[in-house]
Design goal:
The chain has 666 residues and is mainly α. Among the domains are: 245 residues, no CATH class; 47 residues. The model has no long low-confidence stretch (mean pLDDT 87). 68% of the residues lie in helices and 4% in strands. It has 23 helices and four strands. It is globular and about 95 Å long.
Length: 666
């Protein structure tokens, strides 16, 4: 295993590319694509997850491929950090590929075989990003990932809104790519060595490390969806097919987190404390922005997209805290914060993939993604409803599921923060902890809205009577992700034992220590200060549920009586009398109204069917990006005048440019 892991992973990536290429051989053969190619992709993903999980305990492995440019071959590296994210990628991709077997239909805008090609290139490029060991291969894989995901986003390219969403995504992706190129230009330190080993040996001095870090934050923050480079995320996720949305949210966003960790804790030889403050503030602002806008959404996929912003913000806040602790040589606290980051990356990959796939099943069964037209689907789609409930409780951060563990660990890292030399930071950390708690509480509120409006109550549209439950392969994929949410919640010490291998590599400390934590008890510092036993919590939850159902129901009530609901004397209640998505979001809209860009459509007293509609727009798109777009359009117009001039003017301009260049050449 020690010698074969990296070649096996390279072979698995090649297998994904080969599976995608088979889709081009028979692009219109829907049964061939859905029943053969996607299951093969799931099998390869399962193999990747298993190999990567075992490789976290192995020493660093490197490999040089006979590919690339002359004197610039591709370098591969497998270490605990890349192995952890490869395991995450493999687990999530296995579920998504299995779900896709029943999901894609012949009526999609892009041919099925072409979708399979783009899908497997997307997965292979993400895996290559994680094992790239030089800037050249990293950028090739990064751009392949961006292009493949762009074509997947515009699968239904006949719709103008989807084409616009794809263009915005590609635009922001290339802004990030330029920043990443500049990052590697800074990190090589003038040596001309663009391998990661050369960057580790560069030992930048002065302001160069800070410049490299800030460029990396911009470049990878654009892909992760951090403020203010987030505008593509709530547009691309609703436009893409649900399995693609699941991969983009569950896995692609994590490649940006991986790259930020790689640059900050590995390629840069030292960290500066104010880097952590910057990432902490940006992360918390992103989390609060995302959860507030998620609460106001009426489109279920857009709601989940903004929820991804909230979770990425929490992860970024943890990265900032880890940088802050590492800069002050608080290695144990840095390991706790980094554990929370990696654990939440894994958790988010599981429960957000589960929820996006569940919305895909709802979308196929109802042809609706508007919350105002859904409801009561737990009766028509019980498999999807009950499995989605697991993901909903997990993302809401309720014990004993996995979302609680990572958020509890991050909160402990905030609470354990010692007195730091900077008084400003000592004042900031308690405020940051309060912001984290607020974001987590609002996330639970958002998930109550999501699940309650979609699955509970009565159907708001008569057409929902024709809804059908998920297919066989879709159920297996959803059940696997739900089981992962439970297992990651009740067995955290085993997961943290794997994460500790990454902690030891990046910060030189581990969270699980003999005599402090055990398989039953998780204690980051010591059991007297804070501890959590998920199995005990699970036993308490099960006991309370059994007590409520068996004892209270049977002994106290005696027998079941049913009667009509009291409706204040109104006529027979209808589904329109239920709480709507707009009603759930109204308190948030009122509290945070200054931050929204709202458009209201008010009904008239003479309308036969009065309707009230509120549209929430992203203020960054209107107050930041639109002015930039107008300036660029004017600049392009001025530059366009050059194209209509005379040849003599072009020659004069070229001659003047040559004279200026010769003047500066020594």
């Amino acid at each position: 295993m020690r010698a074969d892991a990296l070649p096996l992973l390279a072979a698995a990536i090649a297998a994904w590319l080969a599976i995608g290429a088979l889709g081009l051989v028979r692009p219109l053969a829907f049964a061939f694509v859905s029943r053969l190619l996607f299951p093969l992709g799931a099998l390869v993903a399962l193999l990747v997850a298993g190999i990567a999980l075992l490789a976290t305990a192995e020493p660093v492995a490197t490999l040089v491929l006979p590919l690339g440019l002359p004197d610039l071959p591709f370098h591969l590296r497998l270490d605990p950090l890349s192995a952890f994210f490869l395991a995450l990628l493999g687990a999530a991709t296995c579920a998504v590929s299995l779900f896709s077997t029943d999901y894609f239909r012949p009526s999609e805008g892009t041919a099925p075989g072409l979708v399979a090609f783009q899908y497997h290139v997307f997965v292979a490029s993400m895996a290559t990003v994680l094992i790239a060991d030089d800037a050249y291969l990293f950028m090739v894989a990064w751009e392949a990932m961006a292009l493949a995901s762009y074509f997947l986003v515009i699968t239904e390219h006949r719709i103008a809104a989807i084409r616009d969403a794809g263009f915005l995504y590609l635009f922001i992706a290339h802004i990030g790519a330029i920043a990443i190129l500049l990052t590697f230009g800074v990190l090589q330190g003038g040596s001309g060595d663009y391998t990661f080993d050369g960057m580790r040996a560069a030992r930048l001095q002065g302001a160069w490390p800070s410049l490299g870090f800030l460029l990396a934050l911009v470049g990878f923050g654009a892909k992760a969806g951090l403020l203010p480079l987030h505008v593509w995320l709530p547009e691309a996720h609703p436009a893409a097919p649900s399995p693609v949305s699941a991969l983009m949210s569950g896995v692609m966003l994590k490649t940006a987190i991986y790259a930020l960790l790689r640059v900050t804790f590995d390629l840069l030889h030292a960290v500066v404390w104010w880097w952590g403050v910057v990432v902490l503030v940006v992360g918390l602002l992103t989390a609060l922005f995302g959860v507030v806008f998620a609460a106001a959404q009426t489109d279920m996929k857009r709601l989940l997209a903004y929820s991804s912003m909230e979770n990425i913000g929490i992860i970024a806040a943890g990265v900032g805290l880890a940088i802050l602790f590492r800069a002050h040589d608080k290695t144990l606290l840095a390991a706790i914060a980094l554990t929370a980051v990696l654990y939440h990356c894994l958790n988010h990959a599981m429960f957000k993939t589960l929820l996006f796939l569940a919305t895909g099943a709802v979308l196929h069964a109802t042809r609706e993604r508007s919350l105002g037209r859904l409801g009561g689907l737990i009766r028509r789609m019980p498999w999807v409803a009950w499995l989605a409930l697991v993901g909903t409780l997990a993302i809401a951060g309720l014990p004993p599921l996995n979302g609680f563990v990572s958020e509890w660990l991050l909160l402990q890292a905030f609470l354990f923060t010692p007195s730091l030399p900077q008084s400003f930071v000592n004042m900031l950390v308690p405020l940051a902890a309060g912001a984290l708690v607020l974001a987590v509480a609002l996330a639970a509120y958002v998930m109550v809205k999501f699940y309650g409006v979609v699955f509970l109550g009565r159907p708001r549209d008569p057409d929902l009577a024709h809804a059908h439950d998920a297919g066989r392969y879709e159920r297996v994929a959803l059940a696997g992700l739900a089981a992962a949410c439970v297992l990651l919640g009740v067995l955290p010490t085993f997961v943290i034992g794997v994460i500790d291998r990454v902690n030891t590599m990046l910060v030189g400390a581990a969270v699980i220590r003999p005599g402090v934590s055990s398989w039953l008890l998780l204690a980051p510092i010591d059991a007297q200060r804070a501890s959590y036993s998920p199995l005990v919590m699970l036993a308490v939850v099960v006991a309370v549920v059994v007590l409520a159902i068996q004892v209270v129901h049977r002994l106290y009530h005696g027998r079941v009586r049913t009667t009509g609901a009291w409706n204040c004397g109104s006529p027979e209640p209808t589904p329109r009398m239920q709480d709507s998505a707009e009603g759930f979001g109204q308190p948030i809209r009122q509290v945070f109204e200054p931050f929204f860009r709202m458009t209201r459509e008010l009904p008239s007293a003479f309308d036969a069917e009065p309707r009230y509609r509120v549209t929430i727009d992203d203020p960054f798109r209107y107050w930041l990006y639109r002015p930039i777009a107008r300036v660029m359009e004017k600049l392009a117009g001025y530059l366009g005048l050059i194209q209509h001039g005379r040849i003599s003017a072009y020659l004069a301009l070229s001659f003047a440019t040559l004279i200026v260049l010769l003047f500066f050449v020594r």
